[in-house]
Amino acid sequence: MFTFIKDTKLEDLGAGVSRRILAHDGKMMGVQVNFETGAVGPLHNHPHEQLTYVLSGVFEFTIGEETHRVTAGDTLYKEPHVMHGCVCLEAGTLLDTFTPMREDFLK
Predict the structure, then answer these.
(1) What is the pLDDT of residues 50-67, one digit of tens each?
(2) In this protein, which residues make up the domain named Cupin type-2 (predicted)?
(3) Within a domain: residue 48?
(4) Percent residues over pLDDT 70 in the chain
């Protein structure tokens, strides 16, 4: 499968966060998430495994009971059902990979 950026839509999620759905099938999904400085990804959990690669920016991430500052090149893994969230300290972009895919993002 090829997914070309020109064929995708940037969704404004509000409060300084936007999302672009990338290639996906039933087993896996790539998602680009852009944050403005000060934007918050509120604490939440879901049944999907999630791998996050920090493309740019500086974030304070909480996964479970741990909180760390992360920057470009850092990678985070979130187990299913574990609470996680972030605060963007310097505008940036994350690349999230979910398995299975987030069908709720396509609705």
Answers:
(1) 999 999 999 999 999 999
(2) 33-89
(3) yes
(4) 100
24, two tokens: 């996906």
- Three-state secondary structure readout of 26-64: CCCEEEEEEECCCCEEEEECCCCEEEEEEEEEEEEEEEC
Domain region containing 33: 18-105
Number of domains in the chain: 1
CATH of the domain at 31: 2.60.120.10
Looking at residue 100, the DSSP 8-state letter turns out to be S
- Is residue 101 a part of any domain in this protein? yes
32's tokens:
């680009």
103 Cβ contact list (under 8 Å, min separation 6): none
In a domain, 61, yes or no: yes
Helices and strands, counts by H and E, the chain: 0, 8
Q: Residue holding tokens 């972009």?
A: 93
